[in-house]
Design brief:
13 helices; single chain; mainly alpha
């Protein structure tokens, strides 16, 4: 077991290094931080500008490999991912703050999506081809085909309209108005609308419900379920007693990787509801030509996806006793 984990850890470190390095090199070649200082035909002090860019290690007058070597040296020796351009904040500090913001949103949204999706998938599989199955199927396909920015905009507009006709006030922007007002109740109220968006989005409960329904139907038609029914158990009892754990195994992989990619992929939801998390930051770094920020985000995304792979293996081992790690 320890050898297996050691091999995995070494492989993960190499893959994260490759992902972050490629992102840094690509961003260094594709982005133009110099354009931030140049507007129209105005006269500029290029010497001062290049000196400023050199402080961020993004000066195009230096070769890409020189900048990459300095960036790598700072990470290896000091754990320093550099400064975020153009505000000068440390990339590590900015990422640490935004990870907490995204986790607060995505943990709740992802867990609710899985719970609701599994329950709906079980329900529709056990009621295959009945009216309720058809209705839920239609709703699921509508949600799967609806763009997340459309859902978010409609939900936000609906909350505003509800308030205008005398309904409850539900915050439609920001994760928290200010540090002094960040009580638990305030945080929960600000979570409501973006969480509903994530649950209803294509990566939400409808996604899990469709896959869970398919897994359920495969299990219901398997030999061991028929054997259990032949021994006197009803179809429903045979499924819950012998088949549910088997049907949940594919969902372990889907959930683990879905959460890993969502942490930097909930861009539209964070932007529309003005949540300053990792998804919104990934857009801001590109708009600001922030090479150091982009490299850090790519490295973090690689870490999350690789951790998701490890979690998937653990879930498999828990759900299926036949799986053993050696």
């Amino acid at each position: 077991m320890l050898k297996f984990l050691a091999r995995r850890l070494i492989n993960y470190i190499i893959l994260v290094f490759v992902a972050a390095s490629l992102a840094y090199l690509l961003a260094s070649v594709a982005l133009d931080p110099l354009s931030y200082y140049i507007h129209g035909g105005a006269k500029v002090n290029y010497s001062s500008i290049h000196s400023s860019l050199r402080e961020f290690n993004i000066d195009p007058q230096q070769s890409v490999w020189t900048r990459y070597g300095h960036w790598l040296k700072q990470i290896v020796l000091h754990g320093d991912f550099g400064k975020s351009f153009p505000n000068g904040d440390t990339v590590a500090g900015e990422m640490g703050r935004r990870i907490g913001v995204s986790l607060r949103l995505l943990l709740v949204g992802s867990i609710l999506s899985v719970i609701i999706g599994v329950l709906v998938g079980v329900f529709t599989a056990l009621r295959q081809y009945k009216p309720s199955d058809h209705v839920i199927t239609i709703i699921s396909f509508i949600l799967l085909s609806a763009p997340v920015f459309l859902l978010a905009t409609m939900i936000k507009a609906g909350a505003i309209e509800l308030h205008s006709i005398g309904g409850p006030t539900i915050p439609v922007s920001n994760e928290c108005p200010s540090h002094s007002a960040c009580t638990l109740g305030t945080r929960i109220s600000h979570l409501i609308l973006p969480t509903i968006t994530l649950v209803l989005s294509a990566a939400g409960f409808a996604f899990f419900a469709r896959y869970q329904r398919s897994a359920m139907l495969d299990v219901l038609g398997s030999d061991f379920i028929r054997t259990a029914q032949a021994k006197g158990l009803s179809r429903r009892k045979a499924f819950y007693k012998h088949g549910l754990r088997t049907a949940l195994i594919p969902m372990a992989t889907f959930f683990a990787f879905q959460f890993g990619t969502l942490l930097v992929g909930a861009i539209f939801t964070e932007k529309i509801f003005n949540w300053n998390g990792m998804g919104a930051w990934s857009v801001d770094t590109i708009n600001n030509n922030d090479v150091n920020g982009i490299a850090a985000i790519a490295g973090f995304a690689a870490v999350m996806i690789l951790i998701s792979g490890m979690l998937s293996d653990i879930f498999y081992a828990i759900l299926d006793p036949r799986v053993r790690v050696g």
